[in-house]
Give the backbone structure.
Amino acid sequence: MSQQHPEPQPVPPGLPAVQQGVRVVLKLGVRATSLNPTSRSKERSRVISLSSRTRPELTHPRLSCPTGLQQEQGEQFLGAEFASLAAMRLQERSWGRGRNSTLPPPAVPVPTSSFAAAPAKLFVTDEHPTGESKSDLYTALQRHTRKDIPTLGARFRSDQKGRIMKKKALAVVTVVLGVSGTWTAFAQGSNTIKIGVLMPASGVYAQLGEEGYKGFTLYLDSIGNQVAGKKLQLIREDEEADPAVALRKANKLISSDKVDILAGVVLTPSAYALTDVVEEAKVPLIVFNAAGNALTRERKNPYVFRVSGNAWQYNNPFGKYVATKVSKNTFLVAADYAFGKESLADFKQSYTKAGGKIAGEVYTPLGSTDFSPYLARIAAARPQAVYAVLSGSDAVLFMKQFAQFGLQKSVKLAVFGDMTDEKFIDAVGDSAVGAISALPWAQDLPNAQNQAFTTAYKNKYKGDLPGVFAQRGWDTARVIVEALKKTKGNVSNTEELLAAMRSVTFPSPRGVFRFDPSTQNVINPMYVREVVKTPQGLINRFVTNLGTFKDPGK
């Protein structure tokens, strides 16, 4: 039967508070660490090893670490936001629980699914001038060591009145700590900030991931791969096109690699799978592509930010434009997954409101190689235009086969902007010329940041033109850097880091970049673009600015 944990109560009068001398220090990954290097054997004799049956829980609020304490060599103090991990409480066979303890119950239980086999040490030291403490914490700890695991010989000396004798270290407890605590302990003292990058390197979205990573690293190269005097270390994992893989790789980056920040994610289902993970681990996730509406609506949480935009922003403003400027009779095609369905729904909302009629609607499986059945239906419907929402190799194959069917001669191609990315349309060829789309970025936008971005890309990649995925990668990296500037490179204070990210604003290749603080989704300009042929190849040329849009969803 699961235990019910009542709301935390104020500290009862008379109970000791941290200002009276309790100092709590968290140590990670060291089996036997001595506060006094000359007495390792004595320190080791006080180690208590708790079995896997035990379960750490968030603890009494009075045990937060006070500010102003002097740090001793090798110690890392917990900030106030990690007070919940300061004095680990253990269910049942534990100190202060099931042993007549007067300590209040923990405020919030830690889900057992978050646990990783990461050894940690909790040091409780006594700063009282007398060297004595009547704290229920110490009493409960003494009771625990004597009664629960006596076979380890881990006992504390006490006087005849049961008081713990004066010792430098009153307790050294080895526990299994969940991922929610492991990543932060050394963050503030480290000269390296670890960023986990989760982007596809294989599968249907491999090219999207490669371009995103190029843009991401291109911006970091431009600032010397450091910020606020700290080195930025990237650890990349392949998202593939599988939410289960993305979840496994994200857990590895958080629990094994101990990254401070996560970035990337192409596929919307992958992003949905990660929301609970990053919130539980307290690791910010900066999404560079996945555009499903729910990510910053009903699934939103304070640890998820999105740089790309969402389905509504990409499709709803463009729907009205297509109805008024392009076609009153349009056939709809999208990939058969959440983002594809959301995109067509958002497009139809404004398109039909502006007088447009739907000639037909189909959804294609991800990774399709033969679009002929769908193209036959389009030909039979005889629409004025097709509006398609596909990505990666699906987009290339659809546009190639669209031309092979001869449909481009009579049907206008209006598409989701990712489909005509500069990295794809060369593979389609001249049949892509004339296709229109809408996105927050165009190759020829006349602003200084866009010129700097496109020039840097062409210089590094031997004249190749960048596409929108590289541009999103560039902005994703800059969001992280601008936030770290605000925190002076400190990633240990999670609330401060999240607040810094929410307030980030800077001149971007797309225009002014800023988040909507209520959703943490980017506020996007939307530009209509048209594919044209230039001496440098096929590009998306700016046509008109539809305005600036934030997601109106809740």
